Amino acid sequence: MATGLLGWLPDVAWRTPIPELLIAMDAKIEWAIAFHPFGGGKKEPEKQTPQEMRRALRARST
């Protein structure tokens, strides 16, 4: 994982604690999603008005 996807040298990968490797891996994945040239990044959820939220809650409760 460290030498392949992250591109680290083997000696650096061996000396890095596992939690730091996992954090670096998560950051690399988030960066790849955010800067993917064909979209696919995280989309903002649509904002609802309070009236729409109430209608949705009422529809779910029935």
Keyword list:
62 residues; 3 helices; elongated
Describe the structure.
With 62 residues, this protein is mostly helical. It has one domain (10-61). The protein has helices spanning 10-15, 18-34, 50-61. The chain is elongated and about 60 Å long.
What string, H for helix and E for strand, traces the elements in order?
Answer: HHH
How would a textbook summarize the main sheet?
none
- Secondary structure class reads mainly alpha
Helical amount: 55-70%
The number of helical elements comes to 3
Beta-strand percentage range: under 5%
- Please mark out the parts with pLDDT under 50 across 5 or more consecutive residues, or reply none: none
Number of strands: 0
Overall body shape:
elongated
Summed up, the domain count is: 1
| Average predicted local confidence, pLDDT | 81
- How far is it from the N-terminal to the C-terminal residue, by CA? 49 Å
| Rounded radius of gyration (Å) | 20 Å
Biased composition (Basic and acidic residues): 41-55
Region (Disordered): 40-62
